[in-house]
Amino acid sequence: MLVASASDPIPNMHLIHTLCRLAVAHHFQNEIEKQLAHHFVTLSEIIDYNKDYDLHTIAVVFQVFRFHGYNMSSDVFSKFKDENGKFKASDI
User: pTM for the whole thing?
Assistant: First the structure.
């Protein structure tokens, strides 16, 4: 499941997130690193152009990349913030 390439990388990111939370990700470290290296280049562009992702999905992607040492900008959360820089109540 982890190695299979999908047109939508979001389910793959959820799987990696789950493996990390279950503390079994170290068993799949090589596969995870390959997937993240592949997705990091394209996923940030997908997130910027596709405004349909919810806060939970963006947070999972952000957490997975940051946990594995990728420098993903926190600007991906800007669409969920109001003009004062606080998260909108409707998105939480």
Answer: 0.81
pLDDT in tens, 44-79: 666 766 567 888 888 999 999 999 999 888 888 888
Superfamily of domain 10-91: Terpene synthase, N-terminal domain (1.50.10.130)
Helices of type H across 22-84: 29-49, 55-67
User: Residue 17: exposed, middle, or buried by beta-carbon count in 10 A (0-12, 13-18, 19+)?
Assistant: middle
Domain definitions of the chain by residue range? 10-91
Query: Residue 78 to residues 9, 23, 88: CA-CA distances in angstroms?
Result: 21, 30, 10
Tokens for 73?
């900008």
